[in-house]
Amino acid sequence: MQPSSVSCNALRRSTAGAAACGFTLIELLVVLAIVAILALFALPGVPDKLIRDRIAESVKLADIVKPRVAQAWADSGKLPVDNAAAGLPDADKIVSEYVSSVAIESGAIQVTFGNRASPAIHGKVLSLRPGVVEDARIVPVSWVCGDADPPNKMIARGLNKTSVPARYLPLNCRGAGPATSPP
């Protein structure tokens, strides 16, 4: 008798024939369950990452404001108090797909999310504060995003109004977290 004419049940009884028949329904269901469990672990992070990516993309809109603030600091040692002082349009006219306004407040750039932004960040603010060296205006302004700390020997000017939940902030916008002492 040739193996092609023998049923799978008869072949399963022998060690050599078990591999020739394929998977049983139970084996397929076990594999499917394992894949589903692994997918459940991966899925919760996907929406958060999407929001972080959109925030990082949206913050680029502030690039049209940064040079004006930096130039004011370099020229006079003072930061513009608002958009008009920096020679920019009103805050609600600097918009994009996910940003409803970009405002200067005492040198800090306040990016407010809106328009098509996720409900999780709609109406929330991300601050970009100029990091400066007080007695050396020639040193370029370094931008401090959200809850991050300014670079060493620099002072972040302006108010940090960041209200975007930390889990949605890009890594460069998060604070250092609780300090830990070396063992």
Written description of the protein model:
The chain is elongated, with a radius of gyration of 28 Å. Strands 1, 2, 3, 4 and 5 form a five-stranded antiparallel sheet that branches. The protein has 183 residues and is of the alpha+beta class. The chain folds into two domains: 7-42, no CATH class; 46-173, Glycoprotein, Type 4 Pilin, CATH 3.30.700. Residues 178-183 have low confidence and may be disordered. The protein is built from five helices and five strands; from the N terminus they run H-H-H-H-H-E-E-E-E-E.
Helix % is 25-40%
Mean pLDDT: 87
Unreliable parts = 178-183
Count of separate structural domains:
2
Give the total of beta strands.
Answer: 5
Gist of the model:
The chain has 183 residues and is of the alpha+beta class. It has five helices and five strands; from the N terminus they run αααααβββββ. The protein has helices spanning 8-12, 15-18, 25-42, 45-59, 66-76; strands at 99-105, 108-113, 125-132, 142-145, 155-156.
